[in-house]
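Researcher: Please predict.
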Amino acid sequence: MDSVSVMRADAVAADRQARRTAASPSRGAAKRVKVAAAGASGAGGALANTTNLGDRAAPRRGGAPRAEAASDQMHKLFSLERERTQESASRERLARQAQVDRMRQLEEELMAERQYANEHRPEPRRRGVPEDEVAEMRAEHADEVRVLTHELDESRQATAVLEAELARERAEHTALAATHARVCEELARTQSALAAHTSEHNTLTQDADALRAENERLRTQLYEGEAVRRRLHNQVQELRGNVRVYARVRPAHTSPGDAGGEEATIRFPDPLEGTQVQVCTSGESATGAHTVRTYPFTFDHVFAPSATQADVFSEVSQLIQSVLDGYNTTIFAYGQTGSGKTHTLEGGAGGADGADAGMIPRAMHMLWDVAEAQRAQGWSYEFEAQMLQIYLDNISDLLARGDGARHEVRHEQNRTTVTNATVVPLHGPEQVHALLARAKQRRAVAATQMNERSSRSHSVFMLRVRGAHAATGETTDATLNLVDLAGSERLAASGSAADPTRLKEAQSINRSLSSLADVIGALGADGAPQRHVPYRNSTLTWLLKNSLGGNAKTYV
């Protein structure tokens, strides 16, 4: 090999080395561009994550301020996302452009290498270059081509990845834009609905306040109206009289003692008013002439023989309301033995719920009905019942078995209690029916010439009614006494004079009835509050002291 060939080969090698050295910084720059792009992508992701965290950390608030805060936060979120997307796309475009430029440069270098190799390919035979050097140069050239080709493939792959990432980012950006538009639309609708609901809520709140004020006003009027009603009702009852006497004429019947006698004629001269009754008897004068004597009587009301149990109760039913209003009330059944006193109070054999029911079961049903109606006005009531018997001026308990206890009457203000007496809480009017049946079996009765089942004692049904108003705190406490008096009788007509036991019973009955008449007479006389009322003259009047005097209502 001559010196010229050697110098030419060295020149080619030096030129190749210079080209390889010049190309190395470009490849390093491309790699750095790719890394920077990846870093930029990572930074964008970090920014996105930070933004998302901020979005999740944003507090949720209610109402219009909450919606406005949510809208501002949403706008900020999408602004940050849009900036991040734009920045990422810009970096990716720069990175892709750098990669494309690098690919072009590599291709140009490859073409230049190939052209240079073709142009400066040694001709060993013509120029005298050794075959091994040519083989080495070809091998180096092939290696250089492979390196450049590999770098080109990597650049193409990186470009494809970047393009895929860019497409994905664009798709995400499009989706986010659509989501943002949808959210903005929903937010606008929500804000509109919230404004409408807020307006409706304000209107409803104003209406509710007005209704509450109106309800309070009506409730006050109701309480005032109830107080006025109670006062007027009591005034009406006082105008009609706190003590009233009614007469009920039972249908005529013939008893064994009336055989051979003449029946008296009873007339009702004022059927419209219903306050008078005349008893007419016929006889002979001293000269033998036929005479008719008329005895007129006037009462607060007269019930003819045709009057039913319902007619009698309707006349006295107003007293039931007085009991609930807090006034002690007493109803006496007074009359001769066999005149129908027990029938009027307790009823006949038809049962306590039939047309023949007496005053006691009817009063119980009415009390419960009225109490239930007043429950809507805030009133609640409790009921307690007692059934006592006064026999030979001594008190016994008709609800106790084998009553041998001693009973005393005690008065505390407006309340009367009987020691050692059975008190039964009532939860319905049906309980009263069982109490009446139990008491009827234990009441003292005996046969006389005027009545085969003559009551030899006074029966007293005492119903205590306690009421309370939840809103006003007002309370009431009153007692309803339904008294079935023993029948008055003449000793000779009843045959009691021949029997010491019957005689003692009749004397005790007549004495207590006389004491009752004295008490009622003293209460009804002028200046009654200042007069002495002889309550202690009998056990009956002493037991009913609080139910006869003061503002109590008494029907006989």
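Model: The chain is about 55% helix and 15% strand.
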